[in-house]
Design brief:
The structure is a homodimer.
Chain A: H1 8-15, H2 19-26, H3 34-46, H4 53-60, E1 65-70, H5 78-91, E2 95-100, H6 105-117, E3 122-125, H7 138-142, E4 147-150, E5 160-164, H8 166-179, E6 185-190, H9 195-210, E7 220-223, H10 229-239, E8 245-248, H11 251-263, E9 273-278, H12 281-285, E10 291-294, H13 297-313, E11 321-324, E12 327-329
Parallel strand pairs in A: 1-2, 1-3, 3-4, 4-5, 5-11, 6-7, 6-8, 8-9, 9-10
Antiparallel strand pairs in A: 10-12
Helix pairs in contact in A: 1-2, 1-3, 2-3, 5-13, 8-9
The first copy, chain A, binds a DNA duplex through α2 and α4.
Chain lengths: ~350, ~350
DNA sequence: GTCGGCCCAACAATCGGTTGCGCAAGACTT
DNA sequence: AAGTCTTGCGCAACCGATTGTTGGGCCGAC
C-alpha cells in the first residue's frame, strides 16, 4: 500500500536540497529564500507531494483527531447531532472519527482505549445504555485527553457534560398538556436505567404534582423494547377511558405511538392529543404535524464540539455542565379541552 | 497533550532490557523467552502502557484506517449503512473514520486528499450530488489506496461499485402495481442528475412499456427539493382523476408523500395505493404499513466493507460492479383493483 | 585587509515504535 | 574437546517528517 508515495526525501533529491530545507520551504519558514521556496513548491506540486500526517503528528504529539463514540446510529437524533459536530470539527481543522459501541460496555471500553492508541486530541461520548460508571474513562485522563459527555450521560462529578435539559422538557410537556385541559395524560418513556429517561419522567411527574393533577402509575409507560409499546398502550387506554393526551419522550416512541393510534382508528387530536420531545423531523412528516418540544441535534453537536475544542486548545480542564433548553413548536396535534372529553367509538 | 504517556522506552528502562526486546516480547515473538515475555507484560500492565499507533503504523506503511465519505447524514439510509460498514470494519480490526462532504464537490475533493494524508488503507465513497467526474479520485490510485463507490455513483469504468439494482427495483415496482390493476400510477422521483434516480425512473418506464401500459409525462414527478412535492402531487391528481397508485423511490419521498396524502384526506389503500423502495424502517411506522421493495442498508454496508477489505488485503485491483437486488415486502398499502376505480370525494 | 553579521541551507537528533542481523552463551553433536 | 546448533537478546537502521544548532559564503564596514 502507498509504498510509492512521494516523500520529502524525493523532493529533496529532485531539487538537490536537504530534507530540512524542503520541509522549511514548504512551511514558509523565514530562513528560506523566496527563490528556493518557489522552486520547492513547484516540484512538490508536479510530484503531487502529500505530507504524511502520521509522521508529522508523531513528532508533534497531537493528532488533530477528535473521536466520537456513540452507542448506535439511531435514525432520528444521531445524524443531525453528528452533522453538527462534524461542521465545527472541520471548521477548526480537526477530523472526526466516529465509533459505535453498539450499546455494549465492553465495546465502549475497547473504543476508549483505541482513542488513546490513536492519540486522539479529544473524545466525545454518548454513553451506551449499559454504562453504569465512568472508570473506563480514566485512561483518557491518564493521557490528558479531554472528554465531553453528551446527550446520554450518567451522574458524574468529573466530566464536562452537555445535555438537553431533560427534566425541564418533561415538566414543560406535562404543563403544556395540562394547560390545554388534558388532565388525564399518558407519558411514554423508555428504559428507566437511562438518565435521560428518568429525568424526563421526573419532570413530567413534578409538573403534575405542582399543578395538583393526579398522576396514576398506570399513566406512565416504560417501554424498554419498542414491541412492548402496543400492549402497554392498550392497557393504558383500558385503564383510563378518560385519557385525552399522550406524551412521548423521543422521536422513536412518537412515530410508533402515532402509528398505533392510527391503526386503532384514534383521531389526532380529536380523540387524543399528541405531544413529543423531538428534533422536528418526524413531527413534520406525521399527520397531523406533531406539536413538540424541540431540541436541535445540530445545535447540541455544535456546542459540544466547540466546548471540546476549547478544552483541547486552552488545555483547560474546568468542568462544565451545560443544559440546552428545548423550545416549544406548536403544530396541529394538541387540541384544547374545555369540557370533559367525549370518546368516539373505536372500530 | 499526552506528554506523559508511557512508551516502550519506559518499559525497557524498568525491566532493564532493550526496546527491541520489549517490543518483541509484547508482540509474542518466538525469539523471546517465556520468562522475559511474562516479565515484560507484567510491567507493561502495571505501567498501563499504550502503544502509539501513529508510530507503529508509520513504519508499517498501513494505518488500519478505512475512510467513508458520505454526502450527508440522511436519516433513513445512512445510519443503517454505516452500521453495516462499521460492523465489518471492526470485525477485521480496522477503524472507520467518517467524513461528510455536505454534497459539495469542493469538500469531497478536500476529504479525498485528506484520506491520503492520513494514509487510509481504503476509501468508501458515496458520491455527492455535485460530483460529475471522478478525477479527484486519482490521488488515491496514485497512492494505491483502493476505493469502492457505493449507493450513489455515476458511470465509471475504473472503480469498483456496489449499488442497489436501481433499474430493476423501479421495474419491479411498476410491474407490481400494474399486476394489481393499477394502470394509472404516479412515480415520485428525485433529482434526475443522480444516477440512482435516473435508473429507478428508467425501470419504472420500461415496465410500463413492456406491459403495454401508457405512461404520461405528467405521471412522473421529479422532485429536486422536498417542498416542491406538494404542488407536483396536486398537479398530478388534477391531471389524472383515474390515479390509483403512487410509487415513491426513496424513504424521504415516501414519508412526505404519505403525509400529504393524509392531509388531503386520501385513504391508503382505499383511494390510492402506495408503494416505495425502502430499507423498511419508515414503512413500519406509517399507517398502514407500506408495501415496499426492500434494500437493506446494513447489507449494502457489510458487503461493501467486505469487498474493500478484500481489496486491501489481497492487494487486488480487479474492478467489480455489484448490484444488490431488492426484495418485495408486502404490507398493507397496496389494494388490488379489479374494476375501474371509483374515487371518493375529498374533504 | 580582516572582521562582524546576515542569509541560507545542511547536520543530526527526535518522535515511538519495528525489524534484519549479529553475537554470546549454553546445549548438543561426533 | 572441538565444532555446530539453538536460544535469547542487543545494536542500529528505518519509517517521514520537524527543528535546534551549526557553519559556509558573501556583504559592507572599519
Amino acid at each position: 500500500m502507498a509504498g510509492n508515495r512521494i516523500t520529502l526525501k524525493d523532493i529533496a533529491k529532485t531539487v538537490g536540497l536537504s530534507m530540512a530545507t524542503v520541509s522549511r520551504a514548504l512551511a514558509d519558514h523565514p530562513d528560506i529564500s523566496r527563490a528556493t521556496k518557489d522552486r520547492v513548491r513547484e516540484v512538490a506540486q508536479t510530484l503531487s507531494y502529500i505530507p504524511n500526517y502520521r509522521a508529522r503528528y508523531l513528532r508533534a504529539k497531537h493528532s488533530r483527531l477528535i473521536a466520537l463514540i456513540v452507542p448506535e446510529m439511531n435514525m432520528f437524533f444521531m445524524p443531525s447531532m453528528i452533522a453538527g459536530i462534524n461542521r465545527v470539527v472541520q471548521q477548526n481543522d480537526y477530523s472526526l472519527i466516529v465509533f459505535q459501541s453498539d450499546n455494549s460496555i465492553v465495546q465502549e471500553r475497547r473504543l476508549v482505549e483505541y482513542c488513546t492508541q490513536l492519540s486522539a486530541d479529544g473524545v466525545l461520548m454518548v454513553l451506551s445504555s449499559e454504562t453504569a460508571d465512568l472508570q473506563h474513562l480514566d485512561v483518557l485522563s491518564d493521557c490528558s485527553i479531554p472528554v465531553v459527555l453528551l446527550d446520554k450521560t450518567i451522574e458524574t462529578v468529573k466530566h464536562t457534560t452537555i445535555t438537553i435539559d431533560d427534566q425541564e422538557a418533561g415538566r414543560e410537556a406535562a404543563a403544556y398538556l395540562i394547560a390545554h385541559g388534558h388532565t388525564r395524560c399518558v407519558g411514554v418513556f423508555s428504559d428507566q436505567r437511562q438518565r435521560i429517561s428518568a429525568l424526563r419522567l421526573k419532570g413530567f411527574q413534578r409538573a403534575h404534582a405542582e399543578l395538583g393533577i393526579p398522576l396514576a402509575e398506570t399513566q406512565i409507560l416504560r417501554v424498554a423494547m419498542i414491541d412492548e409499546l402496543e400492549e402497554q398502550l392498550d392497557r393504558a387506554f383500558a385503564a383510563h377511558p378518560d385519557l385525552t393526551a399522550i406524551f412521548t419522550m423521543t422521536d422513536e416512541l412518537l412515530v410508533h405511538t402515532h402509528h398505533l393510534l392510527s391503526r386503532r382508528g384514534t383521531r389526532i387530536p380529536e380523540d387524543v392529543s399528541l405531544l413529543s420531545i423531538s428534533d422536528g423531523q418526524a413531527p413534520a412528516f406525521l399527520h397531523p404535524n406533531v406539536t413538540h418540544l424541540r431540541h436541535s441535534g445540530v445545535e447540541l453537536g455544535e456546542r459540544t464540539a466547540h466546548i471540546l475544542i476549547g478544552m483541547i486548545e486552552h488545555n483547560s480542564d474546568a468542568m462544565m455542565d451545560v443544559r440546552i433548553r428545548t423550545t416549544l413548536v406548536e403544530l396541529g396535534s394538541v387540541a384544547t379541552r374545555t369540557t370533559s372529553p367525549k370518546r368516539r367509538a373505536k372500530r
